[in-house]
Amino acid sequence: MSRFFVDPDIKKAETLAADFYTDPANFEISKEKIFARSWQFLTGGHDIGEVTPMTLLPGVLDEPVVVVRTAGSTTCLSNVCTHRGKILVEEPCSADLIRCRYHGRRFALDGRMISMPEFEGVENFPNRSDDLTKLPFAEIGGFLFASVSPSCEFSDWVEGVEGLFDHDATTGLVLTGRREYEVNAHWALYCENYLEGFHIPYVHKGLNAVVDYGSYRTDMFRYSSVQTAFSGEELRADRAAARYLFLFPNLMFNFYPWGISVNIVRPVTHEKTVVEFLTYVRDENLLEKGAGADLHTVEMEDEAVVESVQKGIRSRFYRHGRYSATKEQGTHHFHRLIAEFMSKA
Ligand code: FES
Ligand SMILES: [Fe+2]
Prior knowledge:
Layout (H helix, E strand, L loop, with lengths): L18 H4 L1 H12 L4 E5 L6 E6 L6 E7 L4 E5 L18 E3 L6 E3 L4 E3 L21 E4 L2 E4 L7 H4 L9 H4 L3 E10 L3 H8 L5 H4 L1 H6 L6 E4 L3 E6 L2 H6 L4 E6 L3 E6 L2 E11 L2 E10 L13 H18 L16 H15 L2
Antiparallel strand pairs: 1-9, 2-3, 3-4, 5-6, 6-7, 8-9, 10-16, 11-12, 12-13, 13-14, 14-15, 15-16
The protein binds FE2/S2 (inorganic) cluster and fe (ii) ion.
């Protein structure tokens, strides 16, 4: 099924067919084809203790996991008891082992089942399926990611953008704020708006006064893209005012002089999305300066335009559009990835 096709040549390409957004069946299919096969953000490793229960992409994957940090390593395990399915760890804690509170099955912190009461005589027990599944897991710059069944290695997923998470950018970050925005629009409409700076002069008057639109640049990698915005002053100093990293399908890491704003786009339905903003600050003094200041106003402007598109794409007269070959490379790249993932067997 390659119903979703986007021409690799942006000059020839038409945008993704509108029914990708409007048909609830495609939304359901995208959960397994796109979200289960991609890498998802768990948390900043700076923010958690030894044994931490979490949900991988709530509302979409809803996968209960537990992140275990020991002196030597960090792992991400299924948080579901292999006996009859109870959630194992309910609260963050420190522990030497994990014990199920239903019938007492015990697991080592590496997921191995170590004991089970009243199972004498049970055949072929224990075997490997009694251990907790270890999820594919990765860490970069102190941020933790996991996946249900990734279509690629984490290193391939971040290929070309690892440098953004280098020591200078990610040391000394403190999580100072967490905020959720509810947007009445399909998740991909929210992402594709993020992926182009084309709309800045029209939609974001305040931001437009700060960034030098002419020097705005988009670089594409296999599963990600980076938009770089300069202000006039920073352009001369060759320092970016902001770098906007998008990791397919739904993660945004915005690098500002003050630190990093992480946005996790969480689909709720085919016409509702929650966007979680996590603010990691390194230098408070720079918070109100430049492109990283007043993110709330920019967000409200983006939401208004994205919600308007949500109404527009339902029109009988709208099927798809075309791309600006110089300003919409990021959106084209995103649509190509959606078409690729939706077409996989
Ligand atoms: S469900 Fe965990 S021991 Fe029974
Ligand atoms: Fe915007």
